[in-house]
Amino acid sequence: MKATETPVRYKSFVYHTSCEWLGRRIIRFEAPGKPPMLISSPPEFKGEAGFWTPEEMFVGAVESCFLMTFAARVLRHELPVEAYYSEAIGQLEFSEGAYRITKVTIKPIVIVTGIEAVEPVQRALDSSLHECFVGRSIRSEVELKPDVQVSRP
Question: What is the pTM of this model?
Fold first, then answer.
């Protein structure tokens, strides 16, 4: 680094949430300025059916962070993406003496406008997998199984 250059400084961010136990296995989850969500354990762990679960929120956090990272790359590089749809599957297993989500598989379908866009979009998908901070923050394996389709050959 040259004497005239200043070192790069990275910011730090803080996020706040709160929970309130409503009885049985139901909680109210909140974050400032957002509508509350009711959450329960999944029925297979004696929870209430019809509520969001921490397991779904975990898988959804990985999937949505991946999509937001990919969307940023699409916008930054002006990639010709017409549509994006995905599903994610989280594998909850008994591992290392306890239950944990061992793997999250994200299956995006990306529609592009021409064959020439397939390769750069595939590169953007691959790099987004490695750049997604939620995926980098967890111990679970995150796998990507994309399907890039061309709307107009």
Answer: 0.91
